[in-house]
Design brief:
Number of strands: 14
Radius of gyration: 24 Å
Strand content: 15-25%
Strand order of the largest sheet: 9-10-11-12-14-13
Largest sheet: 6 strands, mixed
Order of helices and strands: HEEHHEEHEHEEEEEHEHHEEE
Length: 272
């Protein structure tokens, strides 16, 4: 989350004077915009440089960004966009609930506090933006929901570990054991299942007729979800991950762009 030091740095970077010689930053205009003195602004920048352990600005011959400063600016702009998106979600007239997929920054997600909510464990990203954690059962408006995020990134060979790909995208055996214990408590019965990927047995009907449907990639999570298909008493199973919308069969709905109410059926494949 952005703090006052980063806000100050961004304000300085917004006031750039482009000249033939260099790209100059304007301390005076930035201080005026923030309603603080130039000295206070300089102190904020200095503390930010202490935090990163390197200079972010060249002071001479003109005030301009160092290479590290350019990097921090790019980072702050991305984070700022994420913050604005979360603020937009928070301002909506309802609560947004989500499960993890397979491209999340799981190291960052782990830093959010965990709390009990409606029978299961959650993390509040904002007061009304809530992460429903893996292997939980929630009671929401008279319906019971089992949640299980995670999936395999099929493009992970093109991603950077712990930057654009995290191995935590797949639960491990300890998590599977915890899921079994949680479902023991629930009597292995829920109204709805919400996962990111699906069971191995549902991969081919979900992918058909796209290439690879005959020999889909499987992993330990799709195998575990096969176990749930055998043991869990449920009414309907919703999942995503496959960038398509439809009903592979009567009890399964895969979602990408569509918004559905509980129990609504989607049109056949290719209808959208």
């Amino acid at each position: 989350m952005l703090d006052f030091r980063m806000d100050t740095f961004l304000a300085v970077c917004r006031h750039r004077n482009y000249t033939r010689a260099a790209e100059e930053l304007n301390i005076t205009r930035a201080a005026e915009r923030l309603y603080i003195s130039q000295q206070t602004l300089s102190n904020h920048i200095h503390r930010l440089e202490q935090h990163y352990g390197c200079p972010l600005l060249y002071r001479k011959p003109t005030l301009s960004l160092t290479c590290a400063g350019e990097f921090v600016l790019s980072f702050a702009q991305v984070v700022g966009k994420e913050e604005r998106n979360l603020d937009w979600l928070e301002d909506l007239p309802f609560t947004t609930l989500f499960i993890s997929g397979n491209h999340e920054n799981f190291d960052l997600l782990r830093k959010y506090p965990t709390e009990e909510w409606n029978g299961g464990k959650i993390q509040r990203i904002r007061p009304h933006v809530i992460h429903l954690m893996r292997g939980q059962v929630f009671d929401l408006q008279g319906y019971s929901f089992f949640t299980m995020g995670g999936a395999t990134s099929v493009d992970r060979e093109y991603r950077v570990p712990y930057s654009s790909w995290w191995p935590q995208e797949l639960p491990d055996e300890c998590e599977f054991d915890a899921v079994r214990a949680k479902l023991d408590e629930a009597g292995w019965k829920v109204d709805c299942v919400i996962t990111h990927t699906c069971a191995t047995r549902m991969l081919s009907p979900t992918l058909y007729p796209d290439p690879g449907w005959e020999r889909p990639d499987v992993d330990r999570l799709t195998g575990f979800l096969d176990e749930l298909e055998d043991r869990l008493d449920y009414k309907h199973w919703y999942y995503g991950h496959f960038h398509r919308d439809g009903n592979p069969d009567e009890r399964h709905t895969v979602l990408y762009d569509r918004i559905v109410r509980l129990g609504d059926k989607l049109l056949p494949w290719g209808a959208y």
